[in-house]
Design a protein that fits this description.
The complex is a heterodimer of chains A (about 280) and B (about 280). In chain A, about 30% of the residues lie in helices and about 25% in strands. Chain A has about 280 residues and is an alpha/beta fold. Helices cover about 25% and strands about 45% of the residues of chain B. Chain B is built from 5 helices and 14 strands. Chain B has helices at about 1-15, 25-35, 85-100, 105-110, 180-205; strands spanning about 20, 45-55, 65, 70-75, 110-120, 125-140, 140-145, 150-155, 160-165, 170-175, 210-225, 230-245, 245-255, 265-270. Classes of the chains: A alpha/beta (about 280), B alpha+beta (about 280).
């Protein structure tokens, strides 16, 4: 009888536990706006180039990761990659929250931002942190490359996890202004190489890529930030800033009241000492 | 006459770039840099060919991994117990650690350019959980803009935990200058005006302002037409601007002997609220 109960219990654990490891099917999409409806938010020139560059780097990084681990050899299963993009007039609320976006593991956005919200193509249209969203999503990671979206002291990160990004592991963004130009595109590519191929922690890959931009390319200071909920999964403490591509949780997390708290990390840099 | 020219230049740049102005001292620095070669119109200058990356020898036991052309050094020191708080304290630790890990020769070829902190907030409580440091490689006394760096990462108790570096080796070359020196200096200044104008435009959109406050000699890494990496003499400009009460920085480089104008055109990704 005891064995029977144990077998039943174990079968429930296997149903409700989230497995960890490399995603065998990794889906990645970008949202980028160069031209807004009636130029309502100020048109940009670099958004689509930045998104294109990042998708390219993700593609190359997945290939390099598969090769470096010999996943193409007989018997091994390489990670397959699905890429998609939404540009200009397709960057709408419905497209962002639609089934397509809902099913992408990683969502990248580049456009204008404000604390707690970022702009969409339609005139005066925003995606706001308090938007109720459409239920639990399969987006594990989001990256909002938009000014001040996580401005320290002015932004409230908690609502993002209850609506728009319900189930997301972590969201990358900035607490400062950010900019669009060629070196930003190169720096963002550096993130993909570090996180996917280099298997660095997602936060380390992100902020060291930003350090690379500032140091190696110059340009404007950016204050990178990651926001997340943390807690226990399968009895183990999970701090999402540490999540690695090769050991990721395969499923949405912390979308009920099953988390310990909300956290964030960011980097501040002192005065430059160039002599 | 040169002083009059300087005053006119300062005045005109200030008028054109109301949101991003230059301190007069910077313009004096630029003139001094560009002036040095003024009468030596022998039409040559020095560039440095990058002949390879160097794996630095370490004075400590550590695990070193190569990744995408960089070296990552994992360290396990835990002797310090000083809570990270002040930039100046961390800066002193960085100097000590550079000497300790890499030795004096490498330390003398370094410039500790940025020291910062990693912050964590959990349920409203914030604390410093680490330190981050950027170090530029110096070649012939001037910093290199390019993949020639040491990044250092500290824990909250000031212990060095990780280093990532990319260190280049160079070889001196002499290059023929195809343009007249006077034209080159004029082009450099017009490129500076253009970049300041572009930055000013970005800052105007955000209704903020800044200033160019420093210029230093540097080397900029570029890839020539046949794929060889070279360091060309450049001037690195430093500016600062106000981001809602926080002072932030911008830097850019202009070749001392520029061949052509390059687009920079930063775009600010901020949307100010509409008044409707």
């Amino acid at each position: 009888m005891k064995k029977f109960i144990l077998a039943i219990a174990l079968s429930f654990v296997s149903v409700f536990s989230i497995t960890q490891g490399r995603l065998l099917n990794f889906s990645f999409t970008t949202y980028a706006i160069n031209n807004y409806e009636n130029a309502w938010a100020g048109n940009m020139n670099w958004s689509i180039i930045i998104a294109d560059s990042l998708r390219y780097a993700v593609n190359v990084s997945v290939l390099m990761m598969n090769l470096s681990h010999n996943y193409y050899q007989a018997g091994a299963t390489p990670t397959t990659l699905s890429l998609n993009y939404f540009e200009d007039a397709d960057v709408t609320s419905s497209n962002f929250l639609s089934q397509a976006a809902k099913n992408y593991n990683f969502v990248f956005y580049h456009g204008h931002g404000l604390p707690n919200k970022f702009t969409l193509w339609n005139q005066y249209s925003y995606m706001v942190n308090t938007n109720p969203g459409i239920g639990v999503r399969n987006t594990y990671w989001a990256w909002l490359s938009a000014c001040t979206v996580f401005r320290n002291g002015y932004s409230d990160q908690e609502p993002w996890f209850d609506g728009v990004f319900k189930g997301v592991h972590s969201i990358l963004g900035v607490s400062s202004l950010t900019f669009g130009y060629l070196t930003i595109a190169k720096g963002y590519q550096n993130f993909a190489v570090r996180w996917i191929y280099g298997n660095q922690k997602i936060w380390d890959a992100y902020y060291i890529a930003v350090m690379n931009i500032i140091h190696t390319e110059g340009g404007f200071d950016i204050e990178p930030k990651i926001v997340y909920r943390y807690g226990y999964i399968n009895g183990n403490f999970f701090d999402p800033w540490e999540e690695k591509f090769l050991n990721a949780y395969k499923g949405p997390v912390f979308y009920n009241d099953d988390y310990e708290g909300i956290g964030s990390r960011w980097i501040t840099l002192g005065d430059p000492h160039y002599e | 006459m040169p002083k009059l020219y300087l005053v006119i230049l300062v005045f005109s740049i200030s008028l054109i770039h109301a949101q991003f102005v230059s301190k007069p001292a910077v313009l004096e620095q630029i003139n001094a840099f560009l002036q040095e070669d003024v009468d030596t119109v022998d039409s040559t200058y020095t560039v440095l060919e990058v002949i390879g990356k160097e794996k630095l020898s370490l004075n400590v036991n550590a695990v070193v991994e190569e990744f995408d052309g960089r070296y990552v050094v994992q360290l396990n020191s835990s002797s310090r117990k000083i809570k990270l708080q002040e930039e100046s304290v961390l800066r002193n630790f960085v100097a000590d650690d550079l000497k300790h890990v890499f030795g004096n020769d490498v330390f003398k070829s370094c410039q500790i350019t940025r020291v910062g902190f990693e912050h964590q907030q959990r349920n409203g409580h914030s604390e410093i959980v680490g330190g981050v440091v950027m170090v530029h490689q110096l070649v012939h006394g001037h910093l290199v803009r390019g993949p020639a760096y040491i990044f250092m990462f500290y824990d909250a108790l000031s212990n060095l935990k990780m280093i990532e570096y990319s260190w280049i080796q160079t070889e001196k070359k002499v290059v023929k200058n195809l343009a007249r020196n006077t034209d080159v200096k004029q082009l450099h200044k017009s490129m500076l005006t253009q970049k300041m104008s572009e930055i000013s435009e970005s800052l105007t959109k955000e209704n903020t302002r800044g200033e160019l406050y420093k210029a230093v000699r540097s080397w900029r890494m570029m890839t020539d037409s046949i794929g060889i990496n070279v360091l060309v003499p450049s001037i690195t400009y430093l500016g600062k601007y106000d981001d809602a009460g926080t002072m932030r920085y911008v830097s850019f480089d202009i070749d001392e002997f520029p061949a052509k104008s390059e687009a920079f055109k930063p775009e600010i990704c901020s949307k100010r609220e509409e008044k409707r």
